[in-house]
Specification:
It comes from Fictibacillus barbaricus. With about 100 residues, the chain is mainly alpha-helical. The chain contains four helices and three strands. Strands 1-3-2 form a three-stranded antiparallel beta sheet.
């Protein structure tokens, strides 16, 4: 049985992603934005490092505004950036939408 948080997460994903998996628009509410970002970052392989052009191409599969989403990945602790390369952080280092009211 799904928890209330899992139900909320699923409803946000249904509301903001179309049937092809594209993000319709970037949510303005922080909690919903983090759910959308987490949904996208989970699709990225955990390989060591990814170049900025590779990351941009990955993000474009979900939304055209790759600059904003790439920045949000860094600001919210989903990724680290070093010398023009990006790496996915461990999940326990990500911003937690579950802690927001």
């Amino acid at each position: 049985m799904q928890t209330e948080l899992e139900n909320y997460q699923a409803s946000v994903i249904r509301a903001f992603f179309d049937k092809e998996g594209k993000l319709k628009n970037i949510p303005s509410q922080k909690k919903k934005k983090l759910i959308a970002l987490e949904h996208i970052i989970r699709q990225l392989d955990d390989k060591e490092k990814i170049s900025e052009p590779e990351l941009n191409q990955f993000i474009k599969r979900y939304h055209e505004d790759f600059c904003t989403i790439r920045r949000e990945f860094i600001v919210n602790g989903y990724m680290d950036r070093e010398s023009g390369f990006y790496s996915k952080r461990l999940e326990n280092q990500w911003a937690k939408w579950q802690d927001l009211k």
